[in-house]
Specification:
heterodimer; A: mainly alpha; rod-shaped; B: mainly alpha; two-stranded antiparallel sheet; 15 helices
């Protein structure tokens, strides 16, 4: 019978993974504004909107 | 699918079980938090449903009966936002909280305290959301929110302070969703029982993994969009203000980059639950597990790059229009694959039709129908005619009610005996199913004809020629809305008592969750099962 105990090591692993995902979310949030403004300018310049 | 051996060590509740209000307010237990999510979602379902009933009461006859035009638009906005962010998403999160740890053999979610936080942000967000609808009724409260859930500028730049409440509500809801998604991803990656590889996970867990990734990719973009809106309103920027050199169409792109994947966020967990329900009541293994996983990933990936099919009428370049049209139509391939997999699972199975299976069959029929009108709307020349008509309202209700809400109902009936330890009243549940499905069709089917005949949506009044179909639609809506009281009664009855449920509630059920007692012990898997 294997055990999956929430020991200190697993907690650390979980926290590390959560922080990595949170950093990714912040990156998406921060880059959303310039990315979309730029893409939109590109599209409108090409005759779209 | 996986099978498991386990000892009965998990049957012993060795830890203290909290009681009273502290159990709920400070809960870090995935099942309690799942229950909180589900109660919250059910409450919001009734609030959002009440606003829809008012809308249909107004549309019962042409002319102005009950509601002023601004209040009508306020209620339309209120209905959409409450149903999407308050009812369906939290209900799906409730299922995730309850079932993912049970299904993958984990003792709890990976980050239990964050789990508590992501739920308790929700009531605050809901309060802010509802304040945004009532603030205009107070002195100095400004105008009502009349933008619809899409919040398009320039209208959203002109609405009073209620729009600021709404923007902050969206920020809070977004934070809650992102925290829940991070928790779900970490749980699935780090907490699976030994032997439970990714390709042995139940499809429901897979759908939530894909949904959680979708959420963390698109919610920050919506947050960025509404933050820009806030800046335009109060800090002198002109992202969307044409008078200052901005463009309102930019907001439409930002919004729909979130808004279109949001549809898949709403329907994928429900369709994932069907992958447990259909094999159980067909007494056959799921057909095409790997292709289902592939289809889901394809739906999510393609679904993220076709957002502008909601904006055909803004005047995009021909190349852009062609790309968005073809991309949208291509999505019907993986969606169709999912549907065919479920039909193939049923094929020559020893099927029985308990309520979850009845809902599953209804979903396959009605969701496919909603998908077909979706293909019609994806075709640009046709969409230019249907755009902003009641046809669109009929289409997305045929997608979202069967695809998301009925799927949630099916899942609730399927797992309710596991959660409560009691069987629900099958006779009443079947009455609920038939009332619900028939009145749903009476409500929304006529709206296709109304739209094709030219009735616009989001308008409080209509031409007298549309009266008959509107009367039928409103009568259906009243029955549909009231039928949910029966759902509430069935759930309360099952919580309070009834025939004891076995650990394996359904004869053909497979998966780890059925190895535990019904209801499961307070601490689910204190010893992890070995998955073969």
């Amino acid at each position: 019978m294997a055990t999956l105990v929430m020991d200190a090591q697993l907690r650390r692993r979980n926290r590390r993974a959560a922080w990595a995902l949170a950093a990714f979310v912040l990156l998406v949030f921060a880059s959303a504004v310039p990315f979309w403004t730029g893409l939109f300018r590109l599209m409108t310049a090409a005759g779209g909107g | 699918m996986s099978t498991a051996t386990l000892s009965h060590a998990h049957e012993q509740d060795h830890d203290h079980v909290p009681t009273g209000w502290r159990r709920w307010l400070f809960s870090t237990n995935h099942k309690d938090i799942g229950t909180l999510y589900l109660i919250f979602a059910l409450t919001m379902l009734f609030i959002g449903g009440a606003s829809a009933m008012l809308v249909r009461a107004e549309l019962f006859m042409p002319g102005l009966q009950l509601l002023e035009p601004d209040l009508y638009n306020n209620l339309v906005t209120n209905h959409a936002l409450i149903m999407i962010f308050g009812a369906v998403m939290p209900a799906a999160a409730g299922l995730a909280n309850w079932m993912i740890p049970l299904m993958i053999g984990a003792p709890d979610m990976a980050l239990p305290r964050m789990n508590n936080l992501s739920f308790w942000i929700l009531p605050a967000a809901a309060l802010m959301l509802m304040l945004s609808f009532v603030v205009p009724f107070f002195p100095g409260g400004g105008s009502q929110i009349n933008t619809g859930w899409t919040l398009y500028p320039p209208l959203s730049l002109q609405v009073g302070m209620s729009m600021d409440f709404l923007i902050f509500a969206i920020h809070l809801l977004g934070i809650s969703s992102v925290l829940a998604s991070i928790n779900i991803i970490v749980t699935i990656f780090n907490m699976r029982a030994p032997g439970m590889s990714l390709m042995k996970m139940p499809i429901f867990v897979w759908t939530w993994l894909v949904t959680a990734f979708l959420l963390i990719l698109v919610v920050p973009v919506l947050a960025g969009g509404v933050t820009m809106l806030l800046f335009d309103r109060h800090f002198g920027t002109s992202f969307f203000n044409a008078a200052g050199g901005g463009d309102p169409v930019l907001f439409q792109h930002l919004f729909w980059f979130f808004g279109h994947p949001e549809v898949y966020i709403l329907i994928l967990p429900s369709l994932g639950a069907l992958a447990s329900i259909v094999p159980t009541f067909s007494r056959k293994p799921l057909f095409g597990y790997k292709s289902l996983v592939g289809a889901m990933i394809a739906i999510a990936t393609i679904g993220m790059v076709v957002w502008a099919h909601h904006q055909y009428t803004i005047g995009m370049s021909l190349g852009a229009v062609k790309y968005f049209m073809i991309g949208t139509i291509i999505i019907s391939i993986p969606v169709g694959l999912m549907i065919f997999n479920y039909i193939a699972t049923m094929w020559r199975g020893a099927m029985t039709f308990e309520t979850p299976m009845l809902f599953a069959v209804a979903i396959l029929l009605l969701f496919t129908f909603g998908g077909l009108t979706g293909v019609m709307l994806a075709v640009v020349p046709a969409d230019l005619q249907y755009h902003d008509s009641m046809f669109v309202v009929a289409h997305f209700h045929y997608v979202l009610l069967p695809g998301a809400v009925f799927g949630l109902f099916a899942a609730v009936f399927y797992w309710l005996p596991k959660w409560t330890g009691h069987m629900y009243d099958e006779r009443l549940a079947k009455i609920f199913f038939w009332t619900n499905i028939i009145s749903f069709n009476i409500t929304f089917f006529p709206q296709h004809f109304l739209g094709l005949a030219g009735m616009p949506r989001r308008i409080v009044d209509y031409n007298a020629m549309f009266t008959e179909f509107n009367v039928v639609s409103s009568l259906g809506a009243f029955v549909f809305g009231l039928s949910h009281l029966l759902l509430l009664y069935i759930v309360i009855k099952a919580v309070r008592g009834g025939r004891r449920a076995e650990p394996r509630v359904w004869e053909g059920a497979k998966g780890l969750e059925w190895e535990l007692s019904s209801p499961p012990p307070f601490h689910s898997w204190t010893a992890a099962p070995q998955v073969r």
